[in-house]
Design goal:
Rossmann fold, 6-stranded mixed beta sheet, 15 helices
């Protein structure tokens, strides 16, 4: 429990109908009483008050709510002030809090205190941050599931399984001569450990889905110059995001736009035309285009059907898409079979054949990246902790028949990794990095 009292504007800054200030810490009740000039309201019941500064000058009239510890978001005494949302009122109230002895909260400090006081674990706090930042419905669903403890439930099950295995192994080590402790007790832990390893492997295999929902699905448009790449990004964006001309090599750098497809966040990249060039700037653009194509989740190769080129074909992977553009120039084009890719004949000039392509693109994105039924791993930190726990369990299972005491050490290593996932160990640097990205007031 912190010895300092913090405050912050928790609603959006600027002019609004209502502004919400939060105060948390040991002096929250004293400050609420001083500024309202009245007794504290009953917990979690709003009370209409006139708020005044330390010179007893009126600031505004609004609602006061009181949430005593431990039944508050932070687990500390908390007061909430709801006032009119003018910048002048917000400034005057902030000055009054400072004069009364409170400190301006740092980004994420309220949520950090909630973690430190056991109101949230670290994965739930991360889910809360993702929920605040959610721009799409898939991001909202995933973040809400994590904030409500979905990932916590999953790793708690792993932890219980590890503890059961550790109890079996240490039972054999500590009580080798007891009649009711069979000699092969540690060997009975093998099957449960392998089951835990498989479950963690399943979670790790789903990491890309969860991380992409949170950060965005990367789709790269590639192809030779003048194939129609910039026309495609403009069509999908519904605006002129890229310059379109008849001159080859117009796009030199990567142009990015953000879209929402089937409720999922997508970052679409228009890249430089792929060809041999001696122009230094264009060569750098082509290098970046190839790099983006390799790192993207999905590639769309645009080909000029009137002037076919194999540029970009070698970069395609299973599940990518080929657009045979400029159907208006040939009229009789038939989509070729490219095995590992879908191909569509279209005309970006006449806007023909694009509906089928868009439907398939949405299907691919939905099939790969829609939120799963269980809360999954969404951050590199989650992946690292679970990977270390899985590796420790794999070593423990291998050591069972040789040296149960070594298996016990590995199981304790797995527990340590799971504790780090929950934020239960001394990982101040991780806390600083995570909560510094929260908005002030949360």
């Amino acid at each position: 429990m912190s010895h300092t009292t913090i405050f912050s504007l928790s609603s959006a800054p600027g002019r609004a109908g209502v502004a919400v200030f939060r105060v948390s810490g040991p002096k929250a009740g004293e400050i609420a009483t001083a500024l309202s000039g009245a007794a504290l309201p009953k917990p979690r019941l709003a009370k209409l008050c006139q708020f005044k500064d330390i010179d007893n000058q009126p600031i505004d009239e609004g609602l006061l709510l009181w949430m005593p510890a431990p039944n508050s978001f932070t687990g500390e005494d908390c007061a909430e002030f709801q006032t009119h949302g003018s910048p002048a009122v917000a400034e005057a109230l902030a000055d009054a809090f400072l004069a009364a002895g409170a400190q301006q909260a740092a980004p994420g400090e309220f949520t950090r205190r909630a973690c430190m006081n056991g109101k949230l674990d670290l994965t739930e706090a991360e889910g809360l941050a993702d929920l605040i930042d959610a721009d799409t419905q898939a991001q909202r669903v995933q973040a809400l599931r994590q904030m409500q403890g979905g990932l916590k439930t999953r790793y708690e099950g792993w932890r219980e399984g590890v503890l059961d295995a550790l109890a079996q192994i240490e039972g054999e080590i500590d009580f080798p001569d007891e009649a009711d402790v069979p000699d092969d007790l540690s060997h009975k832990a093998s099957a449960p450990l392998l089951a835990l390893v498989r479950d963690m492997e399943d979670a790790l295999s789903e990491f890309e889905r969860g991380e992409r929902i949170r950060a965005g699905i990367e789709v790269a448009i590639i192809g030779a110059p003048n194939a129609g790449k910039s026309s495609l990004i403009n069509y999908l964006a519904g605006r002129d995001a890229a310059i379109v001309t008849d001159q080859a090599g117009t796009t030199r750098d990567i142009i990015e736009i953000s879209l929402v497809i089937d409720g999922l966040p997508v970052r679409l990249s228009d890249t430089a035309g792929l060809r041999e060039s001696e122009d230094v700037i264009e060569v750098e653009g082509i290098k970046r285009a190839r790099g983006r194509a390799k790192s993207a989740d999905i590639r769309i190769l645009v080909k000029d059907s009137a002037a076919p080129s194999e540029e970009g074909t070698a970069l395609l992977q299973k599940g990518d898409i080929i657009l045979l553009n400029k159907l208006d120039k040939l009229r009789t084009i038939e989509p070729a079979s490219f095995g590992k890719t879908d191909s569509f004949a279209v005309s970006l000039t006449e806007k023909t054949g694009l509906d089928t392509f868009e439907t398939r693109l949405a299907e691919i994105i939905r099939e790969r990246y829609s939120p799963g039924r269980e809360a999954g791993l969404t951050r590199a930190r989650h992946k690292d902790c679970v990977l270390r726990a899985k590796d420790a369990l794999t070593r423990a299972e291998a050591a069972l028949a040789i040296a149960p005491e070594l298996a016990g050490d590995d199981l304790r290593g797995a527990l340590q990794a799971l504790r780090e996932l929950a934020g239960e160990t001394d990982i101040e640097a991780v806390f600083d990095r995570i909560f510094s990205r929260f908005c002030v007031g949360k």
